[in-house]
Amino acid sequence: MAYPCIFFPKFHCELTMIKNFWGTMKHYLGEHCDYTFDALKNNMLPALRSVPITIIRKWINAYWVGLSAKDAQFKAKAFSSRKYTSHQRVPQTLAR
């Protein structure tokens, strides 16, 4: 009996739109949290709403137009190999 097998590219979960969405939410939660569970629960809905729909559409379009996994990995590697002076922050010029 044969079973279908789907091969995903290396770091497949890092190439999806939801990874970007979750990262943006975590950034919002980190800025608006006093590190208690109640604060996290109270800030979850505003964090979901903090991600602009235009940004979500850009992420979806990047995959919809056929950005292959190999191209996405190449672009992610090129972006992550740059050196920045601040720690764990994206410069304002790239955050747009």
Description:
- By secondary structure, this protein is an all-alpha fold.
- The chain has four helices and no strands.
- The N and C termini lie far apart (51 Å).
- The relative contact order is 0.12.
Please describe the topology of this protein:
Blueprint: H1 17-31, H2 37-49, H3 53-64, H4 69-80
List keywords for this structure.
single chain, 96 residues, mainly alpha, extended, nucleic acid binding, RNaseH_sf
**Beta-strand content:** under 5%
| CA-based gyration radius | 17 Å
Write down the secondary-structure element order: HHHH
Please, how many helices? 4
How widely separated are the two ends?
Answer: 51 Å
Q: Can you tell me the overall shape?
A: extended
Oligomeric state of this protein: single chain
Mean pLDDT: 76
Largest sheet: none
Question: Using DSSP, what is the number of strands?
Answer: 0
Structural class: mainly alpha
> Roughly what percent helix?
40-55%
> What are the segments in which pLDDT stays under 50 over at least 5 consecutive residues?
none
Please summarize what this structure is.
GO terms for molecular function: nucleic acid binding. InterPro entries: RNaseH_sf. 54% of the residues lie in helices and 0% in strands.
